[in-house]
Write a structure and sequence with these properties.
Strands 3, 5, 6, 10, 11, 18 and 19 form a seven-stranded mixed beta sheet that branches. The protein has a six-stranded parallel beta sheet with strand order 14-13-12-15-16-17, sandwiched between helices. Strands 2-1-4 form a three-stranded antiparallel beta sheet. The protein is globular, with a radius of gyration of 20 Å. The two termini are 18 Å apart. It folds into two domains: 163 residues, Medium-chain alcohol dehydrogenases, catalytic domain (Quinone Oxidoreductase, Chain A, domain 1, Alpha-Beta Complex), CATH 3.90.180.10; 149 residues, Rossmann fold, CATH 3.40.50. The model has no long low-confidence stretch (mean pLDDT 95). The chain is α/β, with parallel strands linked by helices. The structure holds ligand DN4, beta-D-glucopyranose and zinc ion (ZN).
Length: 360
């Protein structure tokens, strides 16, 4: 492939550049042009050097960023895709462990997988790239439009709820229909993943709260109202929301002090899913009384990372359902469109950001 414009970094040290780069020898029977690429906490973490697990592809002194993409097929040698199709490329590419070989590289058991734009594989923030058909998921629902770019971050949320379902058999239901109505979910953070978690949490029937340690902008307040989600400012209300304990805690902050503060407010048989990562978060002390609390209440602490093809497909179904249910309010998840070359976006979050996207 010739020279193309790309955002790149030097992982894991960080930094951000936009320039033409030369990448040779990438295979693929489909040529893709990104339409939109989203920016997320992971991209900013790589750029500011706080994700030590990121690394450049072998033989390169840089890593092309970008793992959240909505692309158009430009040329296809695959019977599965035609020019003009809209697709989302998978982030994680399997290694050779048993889980990778059965299509679950999200549960890779030896760490030898790769992730586009994150670990050892160039990402999607570039003018065009090649990929193989088996790494692509088609966006069938044309009504999704730009919202298709949320497929990738939504697939993480779908997988985390799969984890919730696996460990929820000892959950106590409190109505005769065994639904989750009346159970409380608290999501720490108010970024794009947090809002996507809140949407699925509402679908499950949880009374849903999202939380930050400062107030949120009006667009986010409007979004909470549209999605029937409650916002909590922990600086003003540290003890939380009408007192009743939390049944499902989801963290998108990666901040151990905040996480354990709210673990101590969890219900018997509660489930906490850890999802955010921030190696620069302040160190927090966990005491024996914290451990007692978790043990005595049968609380489950579960990590969840990435997702498999099945979750991308379910994410597309979720997005279609939310589009029908919430209409224009869902479009408000995209809070800004940027042009290739804007670098400040990686260093500073725009006010009120839910999802910033680059239009190629
Ligand atoms: P984001 O938009 O940076 O979201 C992080 C949110 O946490 C922001 O709203 C932060 O607030 C908020 N936050 C930070 N510290 C605290 C605190 N102490 N108390 C309350 N809220 C806090 O990023 P994102 O939504 O794109 O991703 C969320 C996290 O998940 C990132 O750490 C990603 O690296 C990670 N992630 C993991 C996976 C995976 O495991 C996938 C995608 C992302 P503010 O002050 O910035 O408003 O597969
Ligand atoms: C991506 C995941 C990936 C994770 C690595 C996220 O932003 O969405 O696919 O596994 O970063 O931490
Ligand atoms: Zn991401």
């Amino acid at each position: 492939m010739g020279e193309i414009g790309a955002y790149y970094t030097d992982a894991p040290g960080g930094g951000i550049n936009f320039n033409t780069v030369k990448i040779s020898g990438e295979g693929g029977n489909v040529l893709l042009k990104p339409l939109l690429t989203g920016i997320c906490g992971t991209d900013r973490g790589i750029v500011n050097g706080s994700l030590s697990f990121a690394y450049n592809p072998p033989g390169y002194s840089f890593l092309v960023l970008g793992h959240e993409s909505l692309c158009e097929v430009v040329e296809s040698d695959s019977p599965q895709f035609r020019k003009g199709d809209r697709v989302v490329p998978l982030v994680r590419r399997p290694g050779e462990c048993p889980n990778c070989l059965i299509g679950r590289p999200d549960n890779c058991s030896d760490g030898n997988k790769h992730e586009a734009g994150i670990t050892g594989l160039h990402g999607f923030m570039r003018g065009e790239f090649r990929d193989f058909d088996h790494n692509l998921v088609r966006v069938q629902d044309n009504s999704l439009g730009d919202i298709g770019v949320l497929t990738e971050p939504t697939k993480n949320v779908v997988k985390a709820f799969e984890v919730f379902e696996r460990v929820s058999s000892r959950f106590v239901y409190n109505n005769s229909l065994s639904t989750l109505e009346g159970k409380k979910a608290l999501i720490i953070g108010t970024g794009s993943e947090a809002f996507l978690y809140s949407l699925l949490s509402r679908d499950y029937g949880f009374e849903t709260y999202i939380l930050n340690r400062h107030d949120i902008e009006q667009n986010k307040k409007d979004m909470c109202a549209a999605f029937d989600v409650n916002f909590v400012n922990s600086a003003a209300d540290r003890d939380l929301i009408n007192g009743s304990p939390i049944d499902l805690l989801i963290d998108t902050s990666g901040d151990p002090g905040t996480i354990f503060h709210y673990v101590r407010k969890m219900n018997y048989n509660g489930i906490a899913i850890l999802f955010g990562t921030n190696e620069r978060a302040p160190v927090a002390t966990i005491g024996g009384d914290d451990i007692d609390y978790v043990v005595e209440r049968n609380i489950t602490l579960a990590g969840s990372v990435d997702a498999a093809r099945i979750h991308y497909l379910k994410a597309l179904d979720c997005l279609s359902g939310w589009k029908r249910k919430y209409g224009k309010a869902l479009d408000g998840m995209i809070t800004g469109y940027y042009t290739p070359g804007d670098m400040d976006l990686f260093m500073h979050k725009p006010a009120g950001e839910i999802k910033s996207v680059i239009r190629w």
